[in-house]
Fold:
Amino acid sequence: MKISAKIFPWDDPLVFDSGNWSLEVGDVVIVNIDSGTESGVVEKINIKDEEKVLNITRKATLVDLEIIEKNKKKSEDAVSICRGLVNKKKLEMKIVNARFSFDGGRIIFSFIAERRVDFRDLVKNLSKQFQRSIRLQQIGSRDEARGKGGFSVCGRELCCIKFSGNLKSVTTEDAKVQQMGQRGSERLSGLCGRLKCCLGFESEQYRKNLAKMPKVGESFIIEDKKGKVVELDVLITEVVVEFEDKSKKKVHIRELKT
Structure:
């Protein structure tokens, strides 16, 4: 049976062959990947049509779980130490997370930065401090939210967690085409401070609808009366037409005649 397991909070799940282990969603497993021995959490079971499949070493034992918990506690101290070094060196970066590999040989520090940062000296200092292999991994604000978890204003789990895979880039144009550009950044932004992922879900359909619709200000004949388009409802391809007597009517675009 093939399963997918999440190894790192910001990365896509990897696919494994469960072998003779009986696994369920939420189980912790010990695996060997290119970087060494790691622990992961099963996200899906019965995965199909995956070419690259790795093998699971074992389902985590009580001893394994104790090691994982100890590593989490050590990670909190590691973050604090790393942030202190970053402040001392005045590096423009935000340390988000530290993760000890299951075998204890590596520490991965995740950070956010607006621009390129030369952290070579920082890595040297961290290696000397912890006597371990050090890796710094740059992530985005959306990745940070994905790692921390939470719920959006809609009451549902954050899209970046609910839907695995690479996060789609969302632009202000996605908001404008859905007639939401005027709502203000505070209503369009998610917990990460970026535009909400859900703005990208329907934007393509809005664009297709908008391509078929008239522009505001165009004139048409409706029921033998001349009027001009004053509003667009892109989702249902309807427009509001205002007539010369200032009365208005909402009609579908198929009713418009020049």
In short: The chain is about 25% helix and 30% strand. The chain has a mean pLDDT of 86.
